[in-house]
Specification:
This protein is mainly alpha-helical. The chain has one domain. It is 77% helix and 0% strand. The protein has six helices and no strands. Helix 1 packs across helix 2, helix 1 packs parallel to helix 3 and helix 3 packs antiparallel against helix 4. The two termini are 18 Å apart.
Length: 111
Amino acid sequence: MVIFTWKGVVRGVSRGFPLALGSAVSGLVFGVLAGKTGLSLFGATMMSTLVVAGASQFVVLGLWIAPLPVLSILVTTLVVNLRHVLMGIALNRNSVSLSPLKKYGSAVFSS
């Protein structure tokens, strides 16, 4: 059973802080590379906001040329993100007794 408390939130934030630092560094690297490929600040911000899988962002930067190869980008990001299907299957085994709402909540707040 998943129970959220303020004490648990504070503990989670403190434990997740090193991961947040790693994400910040990754975001900075993405921003620099996006600028070098000609992606605008708005475009880079929108990509970081809309694309949840960071690996896909870096893959897309490698394919970012004019004219934009949309089909190649879509297929490549699909293949890169198929790993999430396998992770979902593995995690589902451990959460069989949870309701769908608790499963989704746990997945969102644990990643």
